[in-house]
Amino acid sequence: MTRKTVRIAMNGVTGRMGYRQHLVRSILALREQGGLDLGDGTVLWPEPVLVGRREHALRALADKHGLDQANVSTDVDAVLADDSIDIFFDAAMTSTREGILKKAIAAGKHIYTEKPSATSVEGALELARLANGAGVKHGVVQDKIFLPGLLKLKRLIDGGFFGRILSVRGEFGYWVFEGDWQEAQRPSWNYRAEDGGGIVVDMFPHWEYVLHELFGRVKSVTALASTHIPQRWDEQSKPYDATADDAAYGIFELDSPQGSIVAQINSSWAVRVNRDELVEFQVDGTEGSAVAGLRNCRAQHRSATPKPVWNPDIPVTESFRDQWQEVPDNGEFDNGFKVQWELFLRHVVLDEPYHWDLLAGARGVQLAELGLKSSSEGRRYDVPELNL
Fold first, then answer.
1. pLDDT at residue number 317
2. Which of 121, 279, 295, 362 has the fewest CB atoms within 10 Å of its CB?
3. How does DSSP assign 88-131, residue by residue?
4. C-alpha 88: how far from its chain's center?
5. If we measure between CA atoms, which residue out of 3, 5, 104, 115 comes closest to residue 51?
6. Which residues, including other chains, have CB under 8 Å from residue 219's CB and lie 6 or more apart?
């Protein structure tokens, strides 16, 4: 087999998501399996170039994973000027993303980025136009649609299990410690609006592509965002004011081929988990219902639906959870981030179809922007279709 090397500048790999999911579980995992087999006698070999602000942290990562120390840099401009770099990936702070992606596009690099792709819908659309004008390939991370639980849910949808889908209810979140007596699980910038933080900016782009891909385009949004925990402690154990929302409650109207669908999704970093998984979606239809999480999916068909009767005077005598059936794996599921990386790499090298691009990313930014506007003004907003 012929080995083709693709050099990928990875900015922000010292962060939690950039390191765990993108470097270790995607790019390094591809190397551990011997590269990406393109099926034509060629194996694609990803060569990561670690980029960031803290040189000692980058060099420690390179040493830990046996990567060439020459592939470490704190000089983004020098990396972008390097003609051997094929792809620029960004997982750094949201507030710096738009500017650095513009530089990468101008340098002729293919773009792959975490969401949100920009801090405004105008900025997100400009990135898409610039990338198209430069003739570079571009993609935005939309990992959740590649999760086992949602893949099983999509199997039910595609098989017509639900009949006419009526509604979707989503619950996401967990308690993120304030940082005073226990270390927080998320970086402090997530809770500062001036640094691009906030759960609406973080999660509404996820909900946009999940709803869009599985059910239909979001055509209206009503949202209420809140900052439940007004003070937190940063990485140096110093208190700071939380200026960004840490919880959001959204209602989305979807335009599907079957007609209108109502979706309600609660997102919170100030909630304690009483679910089987950190995110769950319940879908109800005329012929059946299902509850999907990150990995599992349970279903209940119309023919097996119990007939509960409301009577608060007697204790419940049946276990409602036991009346649902597990949807089988019927296959092997790889890491969702890795699967999307593989698809993007094939898109870059083989020009295979790929629609999770910067325009798709702009729809997520748009929904977050309108969600925040809805919350601040106390009204429902239509979500217009975006075009370049």
1. 83
2. 295
3. EEE-S-HHHHHHHHHHHHHTT-EEEEPSPS-SSHHHHHHHHHHH
4. 18
5. 104
6. 253, 254, 255, 382, 383
Confidence at residue 132, expressed as pLDDT on a 0 to 100 scale = 98
- Alpha helices by DSSP H, listed for the chain, are 16-17, 29-32, 55-64, 76-80, 94-106, 121-134, 148-158, 199-214, 336-350, 358-377
Quick count: other Cβ atoms within 10 Å of Cβ 317? 5
pLDDT confidence of 163, banded at 50, 70, 90?
A: very high
Q: What are phi and psi of 147, to 5 degrees?
A: -75, 145
Tokens of 4: 């083709």
> For residue 330, what are its two tokens?
């019927």
Q: What is the pTM of this model?
A: 0.94
In the predicted structure, residue 79 carries a pLDDT above the cut 90: yes
**Tokens 């004008």, residue located:** 133
Q: How far is CA 282 from CA 108, 146, 185, 262, in A?
A: 43, 17, 27, 12
Provide the angle, in degrees to the nearest 10, between the axes of the packed helices 358-377 and 199-214.
120
Distance CA 323, CA 285 (A): 17
pLDDT tens sequence across 218-228? 999 999 999 99
